[in-house]
Amino acid sequence: MGFSSVQSAAIFGLKVELVNVEADVGNGLPAFHMVGYLSSEVREAGERVRTAIRNSEMDFPAKKVIINLAPATMKKRGAAFDLPIAVSILTSLGKISQEKLSSMLIVGELSLDGKVQRVPGILPIVLAAREMGIMSCMIPKDNVREGALVEGINIIGVESLKSAYEHLCGIKEIKKISRKQKAIHRKSNKTCTEELDYRDIRGQHAVKRAAEIAVAGGHNLLLVGPPGSGKSMAAKRISTIFPSMTLEESMEITKIYSILGKVDEEAPLIEKRPFRSIHHTVTKTALVGGGVIPTPGEISLAHGGVLFLDELPEFQKTVLEVLRQPLEEREIWITRAQGSCLFPANFMLVAAMNPCPCGAYPSQRCTCTPGQIQNYLGKLSQPFLDRIDICVEAPKVEYEALKLNGTIRNPEEGSAEIRGRVCKAREIQNKRYQGEETRFNAMMNVSEMEEYCTLETEEERMMQQAFDRLSLTARSYHKILKVARTIADLEGKERIGAAHLAEAIGYRTLDKKYWGR
Amino acid sequence: MRKNNDMDWPYEYWLASMHGISNKKKQKLREYMKSAQAVYYIEETELKSINFLTEEDKNVLRIAQNMTSFEKEWEGLAKRGIWMALCFEEKYPKRLLSIEDMPYVIYGKGSLPKEGGISVAMVGARNCTTYGELYAGRFAKALTEAGAQIISGLARGIDGASQRGALTGGGKTFAVMGCGVDVCYPQEHIGLYMDILEHGGGILSELPPGTKPLPFHFPKRNRIISGLSDYVLVMEAKEKSGSLITADMALEQGRDVWALPGPLNSELSRGCNMLIRQGAGILVSPETLLADLKLSNVNFLENQAETKKMLETEENMVYSSVGLYPKSIGELIDETKLSVTEIMRLLVGLELKGYIKEITKNHYIRIY
Fold this sequence. Notes:
The complex is a heterodimer.
Chain A: E1 3-12, E2 15-26, E3 31-35, H1 40-43, H2 45-54, E4 64-70, H3 82-92, E5 104-106, E6 109-110, E7 116-117, H4 122-131, E8 136-140, H5 144-147, E9 154-158, H6 161-169, H7 179-187, H8 205-217, E10 221-224, H9 231-236, H10 247-259, E11 275-278, H11 284-288, E12 289-290, E13 295-296, H12 298-301, E14 306-309, H13 317-329, E15 331-336, E16 339-344, E17 348-353, H14 370-378, H15 382-385, E18 390-393, H16 399-402, H17 404-409, H18 415-432, H19 446-452, H20 457-469, H21 474-490, H22 498-506
Parallel strand pairs in A: 3-4, 5-8, 8-9, 10-17, 10-18, 11-14, 14-17
Antiparallel strand pairs in A: 1-2, 2-4, 6-7, 12-13, 15-16
Helix pairs in contact in A: 2-3, 8-18, 8-21, 20-22, 21-22
Chain B: H1 9-16, H2 23-33, H3 36-40, H4 44-49, H5 55-65, H6 70-79, E1 82-86, H7 94-97, E2 105-110, E3 119-123, H8 130-145, E4 149-152, H9 158-168, E5 173-176, H10 190-198, E6 202-205, H11 217-227, E7 231-234, H12 242-252, E8 256-259, H13 267-277, E9 281-282, H14 286-292, H15 298-307, H16 313-321, E10 327-328, H17 329-336, H18 340-353, E11 356-360, E12 363-366
Parallel strand pairs in B: 3-4, 3-7, 4-5, 5-6, 7-8, 8-9
Antiparallel strand pairs in B: 1-2, 2-6, 10-12, 11-12
Helix pairs in contact in B: 1-6, 8-9, 11-12, 16-18
């Protein structure tokens, strides 16, 4: 009887903070107190723990029990402290020896019957535990596969409070997950991916080509086309032509999903690039993240993959504006009263829109007035459009292209072939930007552009002509050069040629001034 | 109490802007009383004795007599450069004297069309195609380069394109409004409105300054558009449209009507094609129009020679696929069987050479 302490962890943003769960059971009027700057769900743990202990065939003594979660300056949230609280009480009661708990981190939620429920954020917690030199982690059994993604730390998956107690007392030891098993867990995802492929899309050559360029150079993409032209279909397949993810990338993304409790129980490692399609009613907080204790938003969930905004002009203007900064920085700081958190947000923006409210412009079927079209476009701010390098039209699909036998004769190019070219172009860029902060063409700054985007006389003349005739702005000039660089990279050419430049000019961002007049 | 008979502008403005008495009666009343001031100070007994005014008209007059703010209003208008031309004045456009329901007054900003020069009205649909817009601009440019002045209504579509074309031709153009001359309708044409004034043209209207653009104003202003001109060109018009009303009025007023032919399946050309069937002149090219109007334009022919260039075979193939109505890049790929990369290069090349134009994202039309 007396004092005991168990290590647990809390998540703040993406950071993991160690929390010491201390219990003291002593004589006095029977009571159960919990202290340590707790939110209401942590406070409720008291009821769950008492009932769970009783229902695990153990006595809960009529004593004065005090629980403290240290450090007391940090607000604790979530139900993951149930299990450590229960274990520390049992230790205070002398049922478990304190030595068993040294160098062990415990998390888990308890249900009233003593079962241990899964909790979010296991992967970052286990990773942090390993970094801090903790030897083993006791986590809910349902989270075992997720925890097992981490090498070099023992994972003990417990099903119930009783099994945890028996393990810690040495009555019935739970087997640790072996190395071999861990490797199996890491692979298991591969079989259950459903296959999207560009082969499914007939026609739409310009869209596919634009997607290829966009992915190769890390450019943001805007698709313009009438309803039903397959903009979303094309956008969904963009994540299939990305270079495949490295283990570090997978882990980084899985970490974010883990915090939100969005990882699959069976196959926790995310190996497919995320594709987040956002409805236009989204709020600012849902998009970039936030909350009392900041949680990641959609842009962080799209980290390493694609953020797709369909019906772009329908989004609230203020919502689109908050995207501007993360699009530049590729990460976002969320600051709230509780503190600031940095979330990664390195995503590719793909947006789709109709050319006018009725969708038929510029055909004669369009029933919109120029004023309506201007209004519709007016919902997009120029600074936002300036962050989009490539814009392409997704035309209405003609019957000729839809005909089934047509595809047998000329099969459409599949994602694998496109991905091959993209990977090559990315390799060239990796070599070029070695040791620099820039990772791909879209991120080039002016001095880098001067070095890598030099034009020869003929191309220079063409650019001059385009600048005058198409009334380009300085911004669009830079964007055209970056896209031309990517197109040249796709062909493996050192120098930007006239054909590359011409194609890049064709993909220039729409200019609101000259539209719908 | 009557003052002398000289033109007293505030009173003239009061009479001209009076709402509810027809143009003809206003003119008669002004003639009968010799001055607007006299009308303002008319005694009840004398008013009763005037037999060409109905009791209703007289009531309108009586109510108007109570107004006192008109002097200040006129002062304000004069300060903003707005003037009036009354139908009995020397500066009133001669062409309007002969038309039915002659406006009692023309308010204006800038200048009036020159009496000696040729004026051409250009009208057409607001919701026009790029084809109509393109040729409206071309004809207007050629006409102004040859010294004609363009009359139109500052509306969206054909009107705006014509007046913009006239300005690029370095000529004068005049907009007859369906609202007060100090109201820019449609609002997005404010730039054009300013340019017209800057280039020595004028904004005209028979409606008092400050009048809002209400739908029933527009058919009436069309008679002024055709009335101010010697020729009326209809660029694009549906079968039942304001532009055709203008054409009818032009014929009544004895003006020559010309129409731009268009495809049979284009609804916006049906009105024009009907006019041609009824005997309207056919707009084949700016040069033939200039020849028919006995105008010459040296500049135009020179420009023509300058832009003519040879195209490569592939470019030519793409160019011939691009039509007068917008085509998307997908359609062009299907037609030419070229790859995206290839076609993008050729299209941008053609665009830079000035043969085609991208009117919205990846939709192209021929402009040469």
